[in-house]
Design goal:
Elements lengths: L10 H18 L3 H6 L3 H5 L12 H17 L1 H16 L6 H7 L1 H29 L3 H8 L6 H12 L5 E6 L2 E5 L3 E6 L6 E4 L3 E11 L10 E10 L7 E6 L3 H7 L16 H15 L3 E3 L16 E3 L5 H4 L18 H10 L13 E3 L6 E3 L3 E6 L3
Parallel strand pairs: 8-12
Antiparallel strand pairs: 1-2, 2-3, 3-4, 5-6, 6-7, 9-12, 10-11
Helix pairs in contact: 1-5, 4-7, 5-6, 5-7, 6-7, 8-9, 11-13
The structure holds zinc ion (ZN) (3 copies).
């Protein structure tokens, strides 16, 4: 039995405090484990369909979701103080009962009362926002900037229509934030109602502000990962600039969807993924191989349709001579040239052992069309000569 005079520091109470701190950090910042276990504000709020569907009513969904999230978060201090009182008096037995503990530590009692006021205040504020169809929600002010002679609801409707289209993109920037790009809009969605931003694509310029590298990648990317900080500057003086951060492998995806080009005034070199880096080395190697001469007209590459086919597979290596294991020797391919060097490199990379990139250049790969085995030495650039 614990000594009752030892004060409020007792083992179970400390264990509870540590676990509660971990829980709050994981819950508020939505760590992978919490998302995986479904402990998210979204899940709690979708009980009885309160938030509705993001796909159908994008704006309404996020107005409700952010409002509900701050109410849920506002309960966290209360549960801590209440839990602490329970653990110290009932589990650790430092006090006869919880009310005895509160009598002994009046400051705790006042803090507990204050912590009840917090959710009450938050709930009243959210209730006030929700009057007149959420007209007072902080995010609505940003929709109103674009409303001109219409109401914000018209703007919301236009955004929701675009969000339902299949070609919108969503880039997760942090576990609690994402950027949605539709045909005309860029929307920064956050768990905080005050952090959300809206811009029309015709108003903005995008700029790469900075980058940072992480040697250990949470995405399991070999060689670490790079994050790019992007600044959204708005020509409309009512809308201040804002930033978001994306992983470099999402950069091209984002650039393809936004109408303006993302300026890179600081010449930040954008980190490539393993496959892209392999294609660079692959092309370097191919340029040293023997070339093939081709007199017929060449067709566009069937991989990208963007450039003319410019490589062919001709067995140049001596793999079958010294190689006793016949089944691993290169085989002649008689296919017409159908691929460009970039697509061939990507195909080659995609057929390799993804966990061992250092072995790729010395490995073999089947021809994309006839499945004949070839190696990097057998890929030839084409000199196309008019007959
Ligand atoms: Zn191609
Ligand atoms: Zn072939
Ligand atoms: Zn070969």
């Amino acid at each position: 039995m614990q000594d009752r005079t030892s004060g409020i520091e007792a083992p179970a109470t400390i264990v509870f405090s540590v676990f509660y701190a971990l829980f709050c950090t994981g819950f508020v910042y939505q760590s992978k484990e919490f998302i995986g276990a479904g402990i998210t504000p979204e899940n709690l709020l979708s009980t009885r369909d309160w938030v509705g569907s993001e796909e159908m009513r994008f704006i309404i969904y996020h107005l409700r979701r952010t409002a509900g999230t701050i109410i849920i978060h506002s309960f966290l201090p209360f549960w801590y103080l209440y839990g602490y009182s329970y653990f110290t008096s009932v589990i650790d037995g430092n006090h006869g009962s919880m009310s005895e503990f509160w009598d002994h530590w009046p400051i705790f009692w006042y803090s507990l009362m204050l912590s009840i006021l917090l959710p009450l205040t938050t709930a009243s504020m959210v209730w006030f926002w929700s009057l007149d169809g959420w007209r007072r929600h902080p995010f609505i002010r940003q929709l109103e900037i674009y409303a001109n002679n219409n109401t914000w609801a018209e703007v919301a409707k236009d955004i929701e229509i675009e969000f339902r289209r299949i070609d919108k993109i969503t880039v997760r920037t942090t576990p609690i934030e994402k950027v949605v790009v539709t045909d005309n809009w860029i929307i920064l969605i956050s768990s905080s109602p005050w952090r959300m931003r809206l811009s029309h694509q015709s108003d903005i310029s995008l700029q790469l502000a900075s980058c940072d590298h992480h040697q250990l990648s949470t995405e399991g990317e070999i060689g670490g990962s790079q994050y790019l900080k992007i600044e959204v500057k708005n020509r409309n003086p009512d809308i201040p600039s804002y930033f978001f951060r994306i992983i470099s492998t999402e950069f091209q995806n984002l650039q393809d969807k936004v109408r303006v080009s993302i300026n890179n005034f600081q010449n930040i070199s954008i980190f490539k993924n393993v496959s892209e880096r392999f294609v660079d080395v692959f092309k370097e190697q191919i340029s040293e191989n023997a070339r093939a001469v081709f007199t017929d007209e060449l067709e566009p590459c069937i991989g990208c349709m963007a450039v003319t086919a410019n490589v062919t597979i001709l067995r140049n290596c001596d793999s079958s001579i010294g190689d006793q294991r016949e089944d691993n020797a290169c085989v002649s391919c008689y296919c017409r040239p159908m691929w460009c060097v970039d697509c061939m490199g990507k195909w080659f990379a995609s057929r390799q052992d993804q966990s061992n990139p250092e072995t790729w250049l010395g490995s073999k790969c089947p021809c994309p069309t006839c499945r004949s085995r070839f190696c990097v030495l057998d890929v030839c650039l084409i000199d196309n000569i008019e007959p």
